[in-house]
Amino acid sequence: MIDALILTILMTSVPLVLAATGELVVERSGVLNLGLEGMMLMGAVSAFAFTYATGSLFIGLLAGIISGAVTAAIFGFFVLGLATNQVATGLALTIFGTGLSGLIGADFVGNAITGLPTLFPKHFGDIPFIGAFLSLDIVAYSSVIIVFLVWVFLFKTKTGLILRASGISHDSAHSLGYSVLKVRWCAVLFGGMMAGLSGAYLPLMLTPHWSEGMTSGRGWIALALVVFASWMPSRIIYGAILFGTITIMQLAGQARGWTIPPQLLSSLPYLATILVLVLISIRGSAKHAAPSNLTIPFISSK
Amino acid sequence: MKNNSLMKFGGIVMAVTAIFYFAMNTNQAVDAKSKMKVAFVYLTNPGDHGWTYAHEVGRQQVEEHFGDAVETVYVENVPEGPDATRVIRELAQNGNDMIFTTSFGYMEPTLKVAKDFPNIKFDHITGYMRADNMATGNIRFYEGRYVQGVVAGLTTKSDKIGYVAAFPIPEVIQGINSFAQGLRSVNKDAAISVVWANTWYDPVKEGDAAKVLIAEGADVLAQHTDSPAMLQTAEKAGVYGFGQSSDMHDFAPNAQLFASVNNWGPYYISQIEKAMDDSWSTGEGPDHWAGNTWKGLSDDFLVLTDFKNMPAGVADAAQKARDGIANGSINIFSGPMSDNEGNQILANGEALDDGGLWAMDYYVEGVIGKIPN
After folding, report:
1. Contact assignment for B11 to A257 by CB distance below 8 Å
2. Residue A91 with chain B: CB contacts under 8 Å
3. Predicted pLDDT at B28
4. Residue B44 to residue B42: CA distance in whole angstroms
5. Is A141 left (phi over 0), alpha (psi -120 to 50) or beta?
6. Which residue from A86, A110, A84, A121 is spatially nearest to A209, judged by alpha carbons?
7. Cβ distance B224 to B175 under 8 Å?
8. Mean pLDDT of residues grouped by 10 in chain B (373 residues)?
9. Residues of B with CB below 8 A from A34's CB?
10. How far apart are CA B104 and CA A16, in angstroms?
11. What pLDDT does A247 receive?
12. Minimal Cβ distance to B4: which of A83, A105, A106
């Protein structure tokens, strides 16, 4: 019983971890992409459409990743190519992705597919204590590895240092001879791929069907999660599991007849994020603050 | 710098254009004087495969039934509130003769616009406010829940029923209580655990709620939310469930026992016919939750799909319950009936009237817990 709850919490956390990790890299490079929800929906609809058409979950996952990147490229064209306002463009991308995914997906409504299998044999799930951790699928395990690799990249490699420098002071990075725009383009595309994969996880694993707007605000929770994690990769995992635990426990609490208002519990992830923002601001620590050039377009002086 | 602010402006223009283009996908038909023009306002997109989808099926039945005599138009994704007022007003100005607004939250916007256009007929779905040119219509959804309760009571082995609900409003509580009445008519040991998802539509959360209920031991699930996620979860876990608003058999071929399907077509067609021969009215008496048209199984406003994945004996019991409600021999809320804290609501021989149905603020026996306030 507890195992089943833990498994539900872990699976609910996976799309949050994936999308937030991508967004973290984007924001570390100095770009804020509020279009997560739009990119996730594009990833979700493409993943479902390709899996439905080809019967291959692998092609579906790949299609999700690619369409996330393509959607991010549209964002990149405006904010990096034309230096438009990042907040406005990101919001437009969410609306664009929501609308376009609904249009593409209209013909797929009402169909079901078989979701991703678990990586290990089914009976591994019966092992006490660790059973839930052995009942996940390949994307779930990959998400933890990706977070680790992103941490290595950002803090242990020179390229990662350049990326962080672009986010803190793009003028300095530029004057040292690094191409800020190239770095940001890579970050934005990576963010799109991760958002696409995150979106793909919904119709391929959590609820094996497509319906319009099925992310239902998970993109926004992932954005809150980046702030909650104070732009540190490992904290995204803790944060996602914390957010997931709150969601699942409020459902489980109701099933057991606890009388905590579910509305209050539903709002806890956002309250926790605001609390973190307040703490960052009180401590005034630059290490945990937002990259200082976040949302500021880079225009190289002629 | 000038270039920069120009780009900013460009970005904002792009965002605003995108908002208008994608948020409001209007499907406007061509004008023709002799035809009756009927408009529909939808809360979401027919792609939800639930509430709005059922209305869209109804609109298509209207087109099929009247052919060239009626021209229909619909606007989808209309948020409840000021946006709705604007959309309804626009439809009124565009020369529509009749406007159906298909969500509870459109009640006041519809009323507001109806006052300004006395010659246009407005028809609001599931509200309780009326005007001289504004009628209300609703389906007795709860009748299907009673049959679900009967099937659940005869199917469950753990005697634990899981119920995923959206918001604690009268319509939803009616459904839970009706389910419990059906359940207890065949199985006094079974009880319902209710989980409030606090949303009509969030597939992942609906699925999570179902997983939690299954983890707590439930082996038959019901839902009052919109997506097929709960049934898919039931299918995967090898337990049973009921479809909601539309037939969800394809999502859960082994888990769906049956689905209660909202059948708006007959209502729309009869209202339009009445408007054509001038017999359209908004009924007598005071404003009432029930609306001036509130029908269910007896008039095929609510239809049940085939009973599947159950033994013949259970299917027979389900059919008997369905027919009993349709012909009036079963009165779902009749005494003796108590709430789940033991207070008597109805004595033997008493029954709830429609007003009493909309005033339920209690769970009947067979439901666990309290209604969140």
Report:
1. no
2. 15
3. 44
4. 6
5. alpha
6. A110
7. yes
8. 50 55 47 77 81 92 94 91 92 95 92 94 88 90 96 96 91 94 96 90 91 94 90 94 88 94 93 91 63 85 94 96 95 93 92 87 92 81
9. none
10. 33
11. 83
12. A83
Segment A206-217, tens digit of pLDDT: 888 888 888 988
**Does pTM top 0.95 for this prediction?**
no
Chain B nearest CA to A119, separation (Å) = 16
> End-to-end CA distance of chain B, in Å?
54
Residue-range domains of chain A with CATH: 2-288 (1.10.3470)
Nearest to B304 by CA among B144, B172, B181, B154: B144
Antiparallel, parallel or unpaired: β B256-262 and B302-304? antiparallel
> In CATH terms, are B2-125 and B142-260+303-368 the same topology?
yes
Whether this model's ipTM surpasses 0.85 comes out as no
Q: B192 forms bridges with which residues in the sheet?
A: B161, B367
Contact B207 A213 (CB under 8 A): no
**CA A244 – CA A238 distance, rounded (Å):** 10
The answer on pLDDT for A286 being more than 80 is no
Class level of CATH domain B2-125: alpha beta
For residue B337, give the amino acid letter.
M
Facing residue for A297 by CB, picked from B4, B14, B372:
B4
Two tokens at B159?
A: 């005697």
Multiple choice CATH, B142-260+303-368, 3.40.1190.10, 3.40.50.2300, 3.20.20.70, 3.40.50.620: 3.40.50.2300
Residue A70 neighbours by CB under 8 Å, 6+ apart: A42, A192
B336 upstream amide cis, omega within 30 of 0: yes
> How many angstroms away from the CA of A157 is the closest CA of chain B?
33
Q: Which two tokens stand for residue A224?
A: 């809150």
The residue among A100, A212, A263, A295 with the most chain B CBs within 10 A of its CB, best to mutate, is A212
Partners of residue B161 on adjacent β-strands: B192, B220
Tokens read off for B171 = 């319509």
Domain residue spans of chain B: 2-125, 142-260+303-368
